[in-house]
């Protein structure tokens, strides 16, 4: 992994987390320790999301350089199809063309099945995992501390209890009306 790219990404992610915390948080009302803990948690979560693509691309690049090979491109199957189409007028046999195209298609599908479908599956699994990671860490790092923080405030807890009591009284009155309607 390139040290310069890694350093730039770490600094960028730190300022992104700081910007989002400033945008969605309240620096004046929150305690400094809460702000630092939230900044650290968001920074580490964002680092995971931003570093993995850099790591994967650097690994693939280093593997290409180490093997000194060019990755397969769609030009290769196209050139084989064009070669088979050039041979068609010379041989004048449709069966030969069909068998050749079928052979080319099957060989490339096997090659695709072996390497590229495995890569697509791994990429899809990693994407789904990162989506769940960000979603669940966002819930765990935002909603759970907020509920504990609000649960410790007496005024908030009292207002929440008043609201629940009023809701229960309304439901009780509705249930009594339904009972009277059923009894008649």
TrEMBL record:
Keyword Membrane: yes
Transmembrane segments: 6-21, 33-52, 120-142
Gene Ontology CC annotations of this record: membrane
Subcellular location: Membrane
Keywords: Membrane, Transmembrane, Transmembrane helix
Domain of life where this protein originates: Eukaryota
UniProt KW Membrane keyword: yes
GO biological process: adrenergic receptor signaling pathway
Annotated membrane topology: Multi-pass membrane protein
Family that this chain belongs to: Belongs to the LIMR family.
Protein name: Uncharacterized protein
Organism: Aquarana catesbeiana (American bullfrog)
């Amino acid at each position: 992994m390139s040290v310069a790219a890694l350093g730039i990404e770490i600094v960028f992610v730190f300022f992104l987390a700081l910007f989002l915390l400033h945008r969605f948080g309240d620096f004046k009302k929150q305690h400094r320790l809460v702000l630092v803990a939230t900044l650290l948690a968001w920074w580490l979560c964002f680092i995971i999301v931003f570093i993995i693509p850099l790591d994967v691309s650097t690994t693939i690049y280093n593997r290409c350089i180490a093997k000194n090979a060019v990755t397969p491109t769609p030009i290769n199957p196209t050139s084989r199809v064009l070669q088979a189409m050039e041979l068609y007028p010379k041989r004048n046999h449709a069966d030969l063309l069909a068998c050749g195209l079928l052979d080319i298609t099957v060989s490339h599908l096997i090659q695709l099945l072996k390497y590229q479908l495995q890569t697509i599956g791994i990429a899809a699994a990693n994407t789904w995992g990162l989506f769940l990671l960000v979603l669940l860490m966002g819930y765990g790092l935002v909603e759970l501390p907020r509920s504990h923080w609000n649960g410790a405030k007496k005024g908030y807890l009292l207002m929440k209890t008043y609201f629940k009591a009023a809701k229960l009284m309304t439901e009780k009155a509705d249930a009594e009306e339904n009972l009277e309607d059923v009894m008649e």
